[in-house]
Amino acid sequence: MSTLSVPLTARLEEYIDGLVRCGKATNKADAVRRALLRQAEEDAIMDILQSKKEIKEGKVVYGNLRTIIKKIS
User: Fold this and answer.
1) Would 14 be classed as within a structural domain?
2) How far is the C-alpha of 68 from the C-alpha of 54, rounded, in Å?
3) What band does 22 get if pLDDT is binned at 50, 70 and 90?
4) Distance linking the first and last C-alpha atoms of the chain
């Protein structure tokens, strides 16, 4: 596991300290890891929702993948 040094505003540091104090994170690093994992999950959900929207809008391609690649290349 690598280490990353990130400057934080006083407000963010207070928030992280609060997460540790109330037991939502075991330490500051855990709080930041949890936040990053949550962001990754939210990004994945947004990608899925965007895909569903595109399907409804008819922005879907069907067929043989090799044939489709040849058409768009």
Assistant:
1) yes
2) 18
3) very high
4) 40
Q: Is residue 5 part of a domain?
A: no
Q: The domain containing residue 52 runs over which residues?
A: 10-72
- How many whole angstroms separate alpha carbon 17 and alpha carbon 32? 11
pTM over 0.85? The answer is no
Query: Does an H or E element contain 17, and which?
Result: helix 10-21
Cα dihedral 28→32→35→40 (10° resolution): -160
Count of domains in the chain? Answer: 1
Cβ burial, residue 33 (10 Å; 0-12/13-18/19+): middle
**Beta-carbon count within 10 A of 16 CB:** 20
Question: How far is the C-alpha of 50 from the C-alpha of 54, rounded, in Å?
Answer: 6
Non-local CB neighbours of 33 within 8 Å, separated by 6+ positions: none
